[in-house]
Description:
By secondary structure, the protein is of the alpha/beta class. It has one domain: Rossmann fold, CATH 3.40.50.300.
Amino acid sequence: xxxxxxxxxxxxxxxxxxxxxxxxxxxxxxxxxxxxxxxxxxxxxxxxxxxxxxxxxxxxxxxxxxxxxxxxxxxxxxxxxxxxxxxxxxxxxxxxxxxxxxxxxxxxxxxxxxxxxxxxxxxxxxxxxxxxxxxxxxxxxxxxxxxxxxxxxxxxxxxxxxxxxxxxxxxxxxxxxxxxxxxxxxxxxxxxxxxxxxxxxxxxxxxxxxxxxxxxxxxxxxxxxxxxxxxxxxxxxxxxx
Length: 241
């Protein structure tokens, strides 16, 4: 297992229980996990295994019932909402299955949004460079409704990398896309990840995506059943997305 000393993500004794009235369901049952900087990790498991819950806890979008989550040396479990928002803005980039673009903003404005909320200098050159790198130089002034699903997800990729976060968290990023479009989006995600030198944690049920990871973690019934290093295969770009 990777050393916690050099881990950019460290999880210890992580538990999550959901309660409804007198009923409780234990989603995570004590997760211990260390992820070093720049590693590409895929988290897999059947529906209900706890993989999306784990990602949400890593993101600080939910609080654990027990245990700790440390991101880049800072334990996030007891931070205020303002402090958590700062961690999410500066340490973490997000890619969701449903894109999460703001419909009233152009592609460029969507990519710029994290920068305008959390940085002072002019971010437009960086946003334009990122959009060009995902093949959207000619589409940056279009609104989400004017873009295909693959184009919207490429905007989301650019936005995730905007503030140069050390960690990217991706939850089924190709789940709403056809095979060829999803392959292209995944290739772009890996290209950006290599170029920017980030740590990538990807939740998926797709074995073809998992084949590109350096490490695979399998969850079953709220516990880590397998955690192994592997030799990633080279992603082949699909048709234009």
